[in-house]
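Hey team,

Filing this mostly as a record. A colleague (T.K.) asked me to run one chain through the structure pipeline before their review meeting, and I want the input and output archived in the tracker in case anyone asks later how it was produced. No errors, nothing strange. Just documentation.

Input sequence:
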Amino acid sequence: MRGTLYQTKDSSIVIANSFNKLVLQSGKFDLSTIDYRNIYLIEAREDNVVSKGLWKGALAGFLTGAVAGIITGFASGDDENCLILCMTAEEKALLGGLSFGLLGIPVGAGVMAIITSSSLKITIPISGNFERFNENKDRLKQYSYTH
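Output structure:
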């Protein structure tokens, strides 16, 4: 079953059928209570972790691309004996920094989205065992929508 871990109780968890924060705040969702005996494995991650990763990745991609473009522009030097599209090293650095920076945005965002969506998950094996459920109850409460 997929959904938002809505609440952790003494011997069960409550799952909301929506991931959307606005829907959860409006109260227009269904709840399912699952007894610990019917829980094999719980996978959870913090709220908005993927979107935060997207923004960080986009910024990192832009900065990396911009630095590479600036270095390349200055390294190529001024155009000499040129007839068309002659540029100074500074102009090349500006154009390269902007171009490579813009190209780096989707690359960085995509890489970080993949990394954050897979690496920031926690996995809690319950296997229908009350002791395992009880040992992890506080940890589950950290990921619950209502604490």
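Quick notes for T.K.: The first helix runs from residue 21 to 26. Residues 4-45+122-143 form one domain.
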